[in-house]
Amino acid sequence: MALIDCPDCGHRVSPRAPTCPNCGAPIAAAGRATDQRLVTPGLLGRLATVLGAWLVFPWVVRLLAFLAGIALLAVMFATAR
């Protein structure tokens, strides 16, 4: 890992350090690259939700159609007497 220069005193500092050990200046804003991951926990949660809904929704529709058919048959047999 390459060291960076402190923006205030010029002392060589690790980019992971929150502040400069020499002068106390914040390093995070000056030299640290932001954490830009391609896959984040929020993205994984959204993907899991979409995938789950995509897999579960057809089964819910089939179940509702089956129950509606049962209800229709029950009404037909009850009124046929």
UniProtKB/TrEMBL annotation:
Residues 4-27 form the Putative zinc-ribbon domain. Pfam families: Zn_ribbon_3. Keywords: Membrane, Transmembrane, Transmembrane helix. The keyword Transmembrane helix applies. It comes from the Bacteria. The chain crosses the membrane at residues 63-80. This is Putative zinc-ribbon domain-containing protein. It comes from Pseudacidovorax intermedius.
